[in-house]
Amino acid sequence: MSDAPFHGRIGRTVADAAPWWPEEPRPREGAPNVVVMVFDDVGFAHWGCYGSTLATPRLDALAAAGLRFTNFHTTALCSPTRACLLTGRNHHAVGMRSISNFDTGFPNMRGAIPRSAATLAEVLRAQGYGTFMVGKWHLAPMHEAGPAGPFRNWPLGRGFDRFYGFMQGETDQFRPELVQDNHYVDAPRRAEDGYHLSEDLVDRAIAYAADHVSAAPDRPFFTYLAFGACHAPHQAPHAYLARWRGAFDEGWDVFRERWFENQKAMGVVPPDTALPPRNPGVPAWTELTDNERRFAARLMEAFAAFLEHTDAQLGRYVDALRDMGQLENTLLVVMSDNGASQEGGRTGVLDEMLYFNGLKENVDRAVGRLDAIGTADSHTNYPWGWAMCGNTPLRRYKQNTHAGGVRDPFVVHWPARVQDAGAIRSQFHHVTDVAPTVLELVGIAWPEVFEGFAQMPVHGTSMAYALADDAVGAPTRKRTQYFEMFGHRGIWHDGWKAVCFHTPGADYDTEAWELYHADADASEAHDLAAAHPERLRELVALWWAEAERHGVLPLDDRRLGELFRAARARGGSTMRDRYVLYPPLSRWNADVSPPTGTRPFVLAADIELGEGRDGAIGARGGSNGGYALYVRDRRLACAYNHFHEHTRVVSDVVLPGGPCTGAVRIEREGEAAVATLLLDGAAVGSVRIPRTAAMVSSTGMDVGRSQAPVCDDYAPPFVFEGRIRRVVFDIAPRTPRTARREEAAVERRVQGQQ
Q1: How many alpha carbons lie under 13 Å from residue 421 in its C-beta half-sphere?
Q2: Is the pLDDT score of 567 beyond 70?
Q3: H helices of 340-495, where?
């Protein structure tokens, strides 16, 4: 029933009454569909149309038929960039100075977008668009991302009609933790049957579009398709991995030079651009050991396969739009959320959880598992050298405010509007500009009040002018843009950029800034701070003014473990020491699972096996690390997987068919632990676990099954064949020691999700 006042006439009978119908919101005649595709952790050079020799033919075809922007910028991090993208406001102003895992108690870091910043989806839906979100969200506080919500900051709470994807900063591509609308769901197939998340996401995006076009052909739609690619873990089907065997044996120095020459030949960067020296800490390829080269090359193969496979899925979506007759009048934007990732460290990692637990990769041991790289049995990230290569010719990486962190590829395809196909646009722009561009192009004004909330000003500048045929040499309409991430700062103003690489704990007022004439120095190779000290002082002063205006302050360079502690201080249901779970349960993601990594705990279950023989009781993690309490051949068992070092204990006795309580007690001995199986309180088996992980896994928890196998003792889904009445986690209270270890692990994990 409409809330609009009735404008007809009410009589005693219908004969002397006049009906009236409120007008449904409709976009203007001919308004386009809008599709925004976001890649994750893809650097400026990674796409073929931006200079690489990687295989992105479908994306390159979009660029050849559309426009490439070579001076487009993001925030250097995923959640902040996505908040800017959907609201047209700067990330600090909308409470997203870092990833949504945190709430520091200050307005610039709440982990959720305020109602005073309506999203693009909300505004378009209010004007009659269908709105669909597929893929990575990471814009809700992680303590709200469990199966009980609250759901106000989930996609359906922020303007999307449908959602299919994942809530966290990353997920396993073969065994993802999936959400449909407001509830967790299982993947439609198993990894063992050929499942891959990117394919599933595109299947769903196509289905949403097909449903909409079939049922409401007169209404356009907005699809936000955010791939998990190419964020770690780098995983792809075997056929794609095999195609890249040996492709990168020449090393990152050779490829960086090769891609740089391609960029100059394409016009992606001016021909007089300089290639800066290698980033700090990146060795020459020739300085690596043979095993380091073998390992690094294979890690890059996995990245290349992941990117190629995702490009193929993008192509399937484009083909589907064409088959539905929708491609001609679809405004299609493809971008990355930040520069290439530095979280793989100097050597790269076979399993990124090593990094999160403060452990270094043993490369000489890792080369024994080269064939696992890119599969469901790895969780890889490549080394700094390949990330530097992906950001060619820019300096530094994701998380940094130098160009390697904030300058990204951006392609626009719209056959009905873009006439100079294949052209390049070099105007400076920022991710806050995307939403105002879309609304100008579809003919919708930003509301001053939305659903009762007064709206903050839009900070972005429309890029619509740059789509015109005569815009090749037109000046940018944007004057100023600040940057800040983890204390790293930067500001662009009228073609000049000042930037500061911040060392945690350093004095913000005295640490050195660099100065670049960005319009003439695309790679930030020539620091002009000494030559133009007055200009630098003016830009630094402008940065502080912009910081105050957009809510950047207070600057916060606390270690991420400290930020976690600040978030924990707010309380919440995930901070308790006792969890009582009643099956059947949805899968719980890692952020809301019981915090068992550093503390002693007991996992107990009231069960009745009946005639059954097997099944998981409770399982956390997967094939790359975790633990499980389960029944095998009517015996209670516990398995612990520490980066493929497996420890298992099996009960001395057979379980009864009737009611009983099966449990495992984990007692800590420094980095080691003792696991004791209990049946109705009596010990029935024990084993010492040599090493345990403070951050168990980025994969969450199952009860009554195990969708991601912790060991090879069983295959998923390994559903419990009897009955589980309840499962109880009793976790020892935090001590100062366990709190420090837990916070350090969280810090490393969160760094990797950025």
Answers
A1: 9
A2: no
A3: 353-356, 363-366, 384-390, 403-406, 434-442
Among candidates 663, 662, 685, 686, which has minimal Cα distance to 674? 686
Distance (Å, whole) CA 58 – CA 545: 43
pLDDT score for 592: 87
From 488, 262, 492, select the one nearest 396 (Cα to Cα): 488
- b/e burial code for range 562-591 (CB count within 10 A of at least 16 → b): ebbbbbbeeeeebeeeebebebebbbbbbb
Taking the C-alpha atoms of residue 379 and residue 318, their distance in angstroms, rounded to an integer, is: 29
Among residues 585, 572, 588, 564, the alpha carbon closest in space to that of 701 is found at 588
Cα 620 from Cα 705, distance rounded (Å): 10
Host H or E run for residue 288? none
Within 10 A of 2 (CB to CB), how many other CB atoms are there?
9
In the chain, % helix, strand, coil (3-state, to 5) comes to 30, 25, 50
Output the six-digit token pair for 222: 């907005």
Q: How many CB atoms lie within 10 A of CB 324?
A: 17
**Residue 9 near residue 18 (C-beta atoms within 8 A):** yes
Residue 660 annotated as catalytic: no
Q: How far is CA 462 from CA 85, 88, 427, 445, in A?
A: 12, 10, 12, 12
CA atoms within 13 A on the CB side of 172: 30
Which position among 49, 78, 84, 230 bears the catalytic label? 78
Tens digit of each residue's pLDDT (9 = 90 or more) over 276-303: 999 999 999 999 999 999 999 999 999 9
Report DSSP letters for 85-144, one per residue: HHHSS-TTTTTBSS-TT---SSTTB-SS--TTS--HHHHHHHTT-EEEEEEE---S-GGG
Q: What angle do CA 442, 448, 450 make, to 5 degrees?
A: 85
Omega before residue 393 within 30° of 0, cis: yes
Round to whole Å and give the CA distance between 291 and 647: 28
Give residue for tokens 């398995």: 639
State phi, psi for 568 to the nearest 5 degrees: -65, -30
Alpha-carbon torsion (725, 614, 649, 742), positive or negative: negative
Does residue 230 have an active-site annotation? no
Average pLDDT over residues 657-672: 95
Residues 6 or more apart in contact with residue 722 via CB below 8 angstroms: 607, 608, 609, 610, 612, 615, 631
> 283 near 210, Cβ under 8 Å?
no
Place of tokens 């990575």: 136
H or E stretch including 200? helix 197-215
Q: Which of 138, 309, 459, 642 is catalytic?
A: 138
* pLDDT over threshold 60, residue 609: yes
pLDDT over 50 (residue 342): yes
Tokens (6 digits) for 647: 């420890």
Q: Which residues contact 163 (CB under 8 A, 6 or more apart)?
A: 132, 133, 134, 137, 154, 155, 156, 179, 180, 181, 182
